[in-house]
Each structure stands twice: as structure tokens, then as C-alpha cells.
Amino acid sequence: MKALCVMESASRVDGGVFVAERTLQRMLAMDHGVKVEVVGLHDQFSEQDRNQWTPLAPRFARVAGPPGVGYSPTLPGLLDAGADLAYSATLWRYPSMAVLHWHEKTRKPMIAAPHGSLDPWALRHSRVKKALASMLYKRAQLAKSACLRALCSSEVDALRAFGLRNPVCLIPNGIDLPAEPATPAREFQGAKLLLFLGRLNPKKGLPAALRAWARSGISRAGWKFVIAGWDNGGHEALLNDLCRELGLKVGSCKEDRHGVFSEPGLSDLHPLFQAHTEEDVVLFGPALRNEKDALLRSADACILPSLSEGLPMAVLEAWAYGLPMIMTDACNLPEGFESGAAIRVTSDEESIAAGLDEMLKMSAAERATMGSSGRRLVTERFNTARTASDMKAVYDWVLGGGPPPPCVEAGR
Q1: Tens digit of each residue's pLDDT (9 = 90 or more) over 285-307
Q2: What residues make up the domain containing 203?
Q3: Are residues 134 and 266 in the same domain?
Q4: Which of 5, 93, 302, 369 could pair with 70 in a Cys bridge, judged by C-beta atoms 3.0 to 4.6 Å apart?
Q5: What separation in angstroms does the CA of 174 have from each of 26, 237, 268, 317, 382?
Q6: How many structural domains does the chain have?
Q7: How many whole angstroms separate alpha carbon 400 and alpha carbon 366?
């Protein structure tokens, strides 16, 4: 079986979509014998991140014109007509149209994975652009898909609310567990770490989190808020300015990191934070591979006060490392609240402040119990092996017919 995996970006530019799809597609190739061809738009990180797909070898198409449109005249030529199916992890840009045209030309099936892009908040954001894309190609691309992939039950509802009646497979993102459970949290000059991990984007709710952090007062004594992620559209500058406006001491680690993460599994962040002992907030910058591992092994708790998500890899990563979470319902992981692995907050400043107060006042043992619940969740429900097995079953069904696998809800 040969499958095309088409993405808007096969690099860190796609944030959690990149992490989730890289994990899934590699597992399909290595454990299930699928010949996966990854195709995406070229961006500033394509070459740097290419090796993260090994043994897959993604191909990239150059963009012509506005990046927001993502038009590439060479992309259709990279979509192999000999592939048996196309799996489209695309949102609103031109690659969705290219996959639709591939389907219409070859008459072969496509599977669409919207990754939360039909969530009500997401549809309201850049509404005019999305309405135009929907009219020109996106609605047709979704409607003509043999199956739609939803990451959670609320995304199934969003697909139906959008008017789609196709079969839907409910397959959450999966994650590989670290080789060992996280080491006990380390204190840096007496400070514990609250970690945000993800793209610095307005939908992540960080301005409200910073206002809540400023209000926490004595509760946050002995803690440091580390914000790690790739800047998206200048949002980092807004966060920096907001910290100063709120009277929070803020620093950046971007220029201090040379040589600190030279070895896999390195978890000693002490040298890096020596220059930041007086700061309330540290803007870490992008955290990749060894850097991310070090942060997760060193953090005491994580937060994601998001306004809109598909199914965030940042939460799964935190739980995989045995870390407790503060998060909103928009993260679409109600299992976390039910199992005691997360504190529920809204995106409102007061609610986040209350959640922070609860987390920061916990004992280390109480936080460890929450984190252990999260790790069990990942092990049982969100592991890559299960995700890949379910997706391979969907591929087999789409191509061979017969009864749908258990993860598929029939069309309406």
C-alpha cells in the first residue's frame, strides 16, 4: 500500500500538527508496512526538520505568492498518481485544493484530517479568508473524502455542524512515551517551573495566563513561569510588552543556550537559568528535541489555557513526562479532568488565577499523583501504536471495503 501524506508544512511551522503527523506517519511506515510519501510546502525550517521524519523523506514544494495562501505551482507534480490513497492533514491553504484535484484526476480515495480547524473559534478567526477557501475548494475537499478523521468527540460534532455527512473515524493523536519516567523535578536557585509549551499564538490564551500570574502574588513565590515556543506572527513581542505592563520581570533564554543541550537526555538546566534567577517569566524560545526533553524533565507543572485546539500534543507530552496540567475544556481532553490529571479552568483571567493558586499550593506529592494519572492516560489511550493501528485499519477499509473498523462512525 502506498499512501500520500499531504501537509501545509512538514516542519515545526505546523506546530502540534507536525509533531502528531510525524509520529503517526513514521509508525505507519515502520510497523505497518505502508509506503508513506510526505509532501508539504517549503518554509524556513523545512531542511532543518527533514531528518526528524527518518526513515521517511519528505518532499517540499516552493510557495509562489502570499504565504497565507500557500499556492505552489509545483505541488501537484509531487503528488504521485500511483499512490493508493491520499491522507490530507491540511487546513485552509492551497494544498487542500491540490489534494482535491489529485482525487478528481485519479479517482482514488482521500482521507481528510482537519486537526481542529472546524472548531467554532477557529472558524471565526480569519472568517472571510476561510469562507472564500470553503467556497472555492475546502468544502468540496472535505465532502468528497472517503473518511474524515476526528481527534475527539467534539470534533465529530464540529464536522457534523459544518454539514459533512461522510463516515468519520475517531482517532486521537498519539505520542511515544519517554524511555524512562521523568526524573524528579529540580529547583533552580530555589525556583520551581511552570511550563507552557507550544506556538506563541493568540488562541493559546497566554495574555490571560500572564495577567493571572501577575495576580497570583504570594502563591507564585518560589516559582518561575517558562514560556517555550516558536513565535507566530509577532505574538512574543506582545507577551513581552504585557509582562512589563503588568510589572512582571521578564527575560529571554534565546541567546544563552549554546552548548547547554549538546547531549540527548540532558536535564540540567541550572547553567541556563543562572542568569534568570530574579525573573518572574522567562521567554525560552523554540524548544526542540533535547531542549524540549530537558524542559519537560525539569518542570513541576504545565499550563495550556487555550481558546481552541484539535487535540493538543503539548498536553500529551506533559502527561507522558508525568506532569500535572492546568488546561481549558477547549483542549478536548475531558479524560484529564475525570482522571484527576488536570485542573479545569476557563480562558478567563480569574479562572486561570484560581487554577494557578490551586496548583501552586499543592505539595510535590500531590502534583506527582496528578502527573502519574496523566501518564497512565497516555499509556492506555493516546499511545502511537494504537493510533497507527486504527489508522491502518481505516486505510484497509477505504481501499478494500467490507465492514468499517470500530473507530469509524458511519455517514449520516
Answers
A1: 888 777 888 889 889 999 999 99
A2: 192-381
A3: no
A4: 93
A5: 12, 32, 28, 10, 5
A6: 2
A7: 50
